[in-house]
Amino acid sequence: MQQIASSSSSTAPTASAPLWRCACSIAYECVLLFGVYWIAGYLYLTLTRQTFPLASPHTHYFAAYIAVTFAIYFGYFWSHGGQTVAMKAWDVRLETADGRRLSWARAMARYAISWGAAVLVAAILTWGLQQLADPAARSVVALLFPLVLGCIVTAAFLQARLGRSGQFLHDQWLGLRLVSAPPKPKPAKAVASESN
Protein backbone atom coordinates (compact mmCIF):
# COMPACT_ATOMS: atom_id res chain seq x y z
CA MET A 1 0.00 0.00 0.00
CA GLN A 2 2.89 2.33 0.78
CA GLN A 3 4.34 1.60 -2.65
CA ILE A 4 1.06 2.43 -4.42
CA ALA A 5 0.72 5.76 -2.60
CA SER A 6 4.30 6.74 -3.32
CA SER A 7 4.04 5.78 -6.99
CA SER A 8 1.01 8.02 -7.49
CA SER A 9 2.91 11.00 -6.12
CA SER A 10 6.52 11.95 -6.47
CA THR A 11 8.31 12.65 -3.20
CA ALA A 12 5.90 15.05 -1.52
CA PRO A 13 2.37 14.20 -0.43
CA THR A 14 -0.27 15.20 -2.97
CA ALA A 15 -2.10 18.46 -2.31
CA SER A 16 -5.79 19.04 -2.87
CA ALA A 17 -6.55 20.40 -6.31
CA PRO A 18 -7.51 24.10 -6.25
CA LEU A 19 -11.21 24.63 -6.87
CA TRP A 20 -10.54 26.99 -9.78
CA ARG A 21 -8.78 24.13 -11.60
CA CYS A 22 -11.69 21.81 -10.78
CA ALA A 23 -14.10 24.39 -12.22
CA CYS A 24 -12.02 24.77 -15.39
CA SER A 25 -11.87 21.00 -15.69
CA ILE A 26 -15.67 20.75 -15.40
CA ALA A 27 -16.14 23.45 -18.05
CA TYR A 28 -13.76 21.65 -20.42
CA GLU A 29 -15.47 18.36 -19.58
CA CYS A 30 -18.78 19.82 -20.76
CA VAL A 31 -17.21 20.61 -24.14
CA LEU A 32 -15.85 17.07 -24.41
CA LEU A 33 -19.14 15.55 -23.29
CA PHE A 34 -20.88 17.36 -26.14
CA GLY A 35 -18.74 15.29 -28.52
CA VAL A 36 -19.48 12.08 -26.60
CA TYR A 37 -23.19 12.98 -26.66
CA TRP A 38 -23.12 13.70 -30.38
CA ILE A 39 -21.38 10.43 -31.31
CA ALA A 40 -23.56 8.38 -28.95
CA GLY A 41 -26.68 10.14 -30.26
CA TYR A 42 -25.68 9.47 -33.85
CA LEU A 43 -25.18 5.78 -33.08
CA TYR A 44 -28.54 5.59 -31.28
CA LEU A 45 -30.43 7.31 -34.09
CA THR A 46 -28.73 5.18 -36.73
CA LEU A 47 -29.30 1.88 -34.95
CA THR A 48 -32.93 2.62 -34.02
CA ARG A 49 -33.70 4.37 -37.32
CA GLN A 50 -35.13 7.36 -35.48
CA THR A 51 -35.01 11.08 -36.20
CA PHE A 52 -35.57 14.10 -34.01
CA PRO A 53 -38.02 14.82 -32.49
CA LEU A 54 -38.08 11.32 -31.03
CA ALA A 55 -41.35 9.45 -30.63
CA SER A 56 -42.66 9.24 -27.05
CA PRO A 57 -41.11 6.02 -25.75
CA HIS A 58 -37.80 6.75 -27.47
CA THR A 59 -37.24 9.99 -25.53
CA HIS A 60 -36.94 7.98 -22.30
CA TYR A 61 -34.81 5.29 -23.93
CA PHE A 62 -32.50 7.93 -25.38
CA ALA A 63 -32.12 9.71 -22.03
CA ALA A 64 -31.28 6.42 -20.30
CA TYR A 65 -28.85 5.51 -23.09
CA ILE A 66 -27.03 8.85 -22.75
CA ALA A 67 -26.87 8.49 -18.94
CA VAL A 68 -25.35 5.00 -19.32
CA THR A 69 -22.92 6.27 -21.98
CA PHE A 70 -21.72 9.05 -19.67
CA ALA A 71 -21.46 6.57 -16.78
CA ILE A 72 -19.23 4.32 -18.88
CA TYR A 73 -17.12 7.32 -19.96
CA PHE A 74 -16.55 8.58 -16.42
CA GLY A 75 -16.28 5.10 -14.90
CA TYR A 76 -13.60 4.03 -17.33
CA PHE A 77 -11.41 7.11 -16.92
CA TRP A 78 -11.85 7.41 -13.15
CA SER A 79 -11.02 3.73 -12.58
CA HIS A 80 -8.09 3.75 -15.05
CA GLY A 81 -5.77 6.45 -13.77
CA GLY A 82 -8.26 8.74 -12.04
CA GLN A 83 -8.31 11.35 -14.81
CA THR A 84 -10.60 12.13 -17.70
CA VAL A 85 -9.14 14.01 -20.66
CA ALA A 86 -10.25 17.33 -19.14
CA MET A 87 -8.80 16.42 -15.74
CA LYS A 88 -5.45 15.63 -17.40
CA ALA A 89 -5.49 18.99 -19.16
CA TRP A 90 -6.02 20.81 -15.84
CA ASP A 91 -3.73 18.55 -13.75
CA VAL A 92 -6.48 17.18 -11.50
CA ARG A 93 -6.68 13.53 -10.42
CA LEU A 94 -9.34 11.61 -8.51
CA GLU A 95 -8.10 9.05 -5.99
CA THR A 96 -9.13 7.38 -2.78
CA ALA A 97 -8.35 9.07 0.53
CA ASP A 98 -5.28 6.83 0.93
CA GLY A 99 -3.93 7.61 -2.56
CA ARG A 100 -5.07 4.52 -4.49
CA ARG A 101 -6.96 4.19 -7.76
CA LEU A 102 -10.72 3.95 -7.69
CA SER A 103 -12.52 0.69 -8.24
CA TRP A 104 -15.22 0.53 -10.91
CA ALA A 105 -17.88 0.35 -8.17
CA ARG A 106 -16.61 3.50 -6.48
CA ALA A 107 -16.42 5.32 -9.80
CA MET A 108 -20.04 4.38 -10.52
CA ALA A 109 -21.09 5.45 -7.02
CA ARG A 110 -19.41 8.84 -7.53
CA TYR A 111 -21.12 9.29 -10.90
CA ALA A 112 -24.52 8.34 -9.47
CA ILE A 113 -24.20 10.57 -6.41
CA SER A 114 -22.60 13.61 -8.03
CA TRP A 115 -24.41 13.84 -11.35
CA GLY A 116 -27.46 11.74 -10.59
CA ALA A 117 -28.33 13.62 -7.43
CA ALA A 118 -27.74 17.05 -8.98
CA VAL A 119 -29.87 16.30 -12.04
CA LEU A 120 -32.60 14.67 -9.94
CA VAL A 121 -32.82 17.62 -7.53
CA ALA A 122 -32.81 20.10 -10.44
CA ALA A 123 -35.56 18.13 -12.18
CA ILE A 124 -37.70 18.03 -9.03
CA LEU A 125 -37.24 21.76 -8.40
CA THR A 126 -38.01 22.60 -12.03
CA TRP A 127 -41.09 20.36 -11.94
CA GLY A 128 -42.22 22.12 -8.76
CA LEU A 129 -41.79 25.51 -10.43
CA GLN A 130 -43.81 24.24 -13.39
CA GLN A 131 -46.66 23.23 -11.07
CA LEU A 132 -46.72 26.72 -9.57
CA ALA A 133 -46.71 28.42 -12.97
CA ASP A 134 -49.64 29.25 -15.17
CA PRO A 135 -50.41 26.27 -17.46
CA ALA A 136 -49.66 28.38 -20.53
CA ALA A 137 -46.18 29.23 -19.21
CA ARG A 138 -45.13 25.73 -18.08
CA SER A 139 -43.06 25.00 -21.18
CA VAL A 140 -41.16 28.25 -20.63
CA VAL A 141 -40.55 27.37 -16.96
CA ALA A 142 -39.01 24.07 -18.12
CA LEU A 143 -36.22 26.15 -19.66
CA LEU A 144 -35.13 27.03 -16.12
CA PHE A 145 -33.69 23.52 -15.66
CA PRO A 146 -30.12 24.49 -16.70
CA LEU A 147 -30.25 27.52 -14.40
CA VAL A 148 -31.44 25.41 -11.46
CA LEU A 149 -28.76 22.80 -12.20
CA GLY A 150 -26.14 25.57 -12.34
CA CYS A 151 -27.27 26.82 -8.93
CA ILE A 152 -26.89 23.31 -7.48
CA VAL A 153 -23.36 22.98 -8.92
CA THR A 154 -22.49 26.44 -7.57
CA ALA A 155 -23.75 25.40 -4.14
CA ALA A 156 -21.51 22.31 -4.30
CA PHE A 157 -18.50 24.52 -5.10
CA LEU A 158 -19.35 26.86 -2.22
CA GLN A 159 -19.62 23.90 0.13
CA ALA A 160 -16.20 22.64 -1.00
CA ARG A 161 -14.66 26.11 -0.74
CA LEU A 162 -16.02 26.81 2.72
CA GLY A 163 -15.47 23.28 4.08
CA ARG A 164 -12.37 22.37 6.07
CA SER A 165 -11.20 19.64 3.68
CA GLY A 166 -11.67 21.64 0.47
CA GLN A 167 -13.32 18.57 -1.09
CA PHE A 168 -16.82 18.09 -2.46
CA LEU A 169 -19.38 16.53 -0.14
CA HIS A 170 -19.96 13.49 -2.36
CA ASP A 171 -16.20 12.82 -2.44
CA GLN A 172 -16.04 13.04 1.36
CA TRP A 173 -18.92 10.54 1.66
CA LEU A 174 -17.17 8.08 -0.66
CA GLY A 175 -13.69 8.53 0.82
CA LEU A 176 -12.30 10.17 -2.32
CA ARG A 177 -10.33 13.32 -3.02
CA LEU A 178 -9.35 15.51 -5.94
CA VAL A 179 -5.61 16.16 -5.92
CA SER A 180 -3.14 18.14 -7.98
CA ALA A 181 -1.52 15.89 -10.53
CA PRO A 182 1.23 17.71 -12.43
CA PRO A 183 2.43 15.88 -15.54
CA LYS A 184 5.15 13.34 -14.89
CA PRO A 185 8.59 14.46 -16.09
CA LYS A 186 9.90 12.61 -19.12
CA PRO A 187 12.89 10.31 -18.53
CA ALA A 188 16.25 11.90 -19.35
CA LYS A 189 16.81 9.36 -22.16
CA ALA A 190 13.55 10.34 -23.93
CA VAL A 191 14.30 14.05 -23.56
CA ALA A 192 17.79 13.60 -25.05
CA SER A 193 16.48 11.64 -28.06
CA GLU A 194 13.80 14.28 -28.77
CA SER A 195 16.39 17.07 -28.92
CA ASN A 196 18.39 15.24 -31.63
From TrEMBL:
Domain of life according to the entry: Bacteria
Keyword annotations: Membrane, Transmembrane, Transmembrane helix
Major localisation: membrane
Membrane spanning stretches: 26-47, 59-78, 111-130, 136-158
Domain (RDD) ranges: 31-174
InterPro entries in alphabetical order: RDD
Pfam families found in the cross-reference section: RDD (PF06271)
Cellular localisation: Membrane
Topology relative to the membrane: Multi-pass membrane protein
Protein name: RDD family protein
